[in-house]
Amino acid sequence: MCSSAVFILDLKGKPIISRNYRGDVDMNAIDKFLPSLMEKEEEGLLTPILHHSDTTFVYLKYNNIFRMKSFHYSFLPNFTHISKTLFLVVSMSKKNVNVSLILSFLYKCCEVFTEYFKELEEESIRDNFVITYELLDEMMDFGFPQTTDYKILQEYITQEGHKLEIAPRPPMAVTNAVSWRSDGVKYRKNEVFLDVIESVNLLANSKGVVLRSEIVGSIKMR
Predict the structure, then answer these.
(1) Global pTM exceeds 0.70
(2) The domain 5-156 is classified under which CATH number: 3.30.470.20, 3.30.450.60, 3.40.50.920, 3.40.50.970?
(3) 15 SS3 class
(4) Which of 56, 66, 106, 183 is the most exposed place for a label (fewest CB within 10 A)?
(5) Is residue 177 helix, strand or coil?
(6) Which helix or strand (DSSP H or E) is residue 41 part of?
(7) What PROSITE patterns does this protein's entry cite (predicted)?
């Protein structure tokens, strides 16, 4: 799945935030989105995916803003959308994409923005455009979704929109198998109980000659 660009639009279809990840689509193609949306609404054929000429839109509507992603199917750009109630999020790309994954990513973006801004609306996006761009850069790289876990993103990006300077390398939580477990957790007793189990298999003939023998062992954690 590749997303060429992500847009956050107001209800008039004007971009509030836009991020071009791959540079392979015309960013002006977003102007086709709202007319196409209104046309489908009038026809009663509104769907999460809209097509106009050589462009496809996948979008999410949240309050009074539109958030949007765009992508291309090898020769045509696409936009994906989700509907909620205050703005629109749209996605664009030149590749054949997994629409379900795109929609899931757009919803996740709204969740992360809500955690950071508390009230997710057009004004909060405008007031926090710097941190919004930082979040978009961390959550997607070259059109591919990356970290969308709010707790991990907090270690990268502070509420003030500045990157943390405590470590030159990524936080351990990013590379841990369990993202929600904080690094450096210690207990008064670090102990584990193991059972060592061994079994002997022996095969002998009537004369007592051993034909085959083996010892099988295993270690089990309690």
Answers:
(1) no
(2) 3.30.450.60
(3) strand
(4) 183
(5) coil
(6) helix 33-43
(7) CLAT_ADAPTOR_M_1 (PS00990), MHD (PS51072)
List the structure tokens of 89. Answer: 């999020």
Instruction: List the one residue out of 137, 104, 87, 85 whose CA is nearest residue 1.
Output: 104
Amino acid 67: pLDDT: 56
pLDDT tens sequence across 142-186: 878 888 888 888 887 776 543 434 455 555 555 555 666 666 677
> Each residue of 64-110: pLDDT tens digit?
555 555 555 444 445 554 444 446 777 766 666 777 888 888 888 88
Hunting for tokens 């949240």 — which residue is that?
Answer: 62
Beta carbons within 8 Å of 131's beta carbon, 6+ residues apart: 116, 157, 159, 160, 161
Instruction: Return the SS3 of 108.
Output: helix
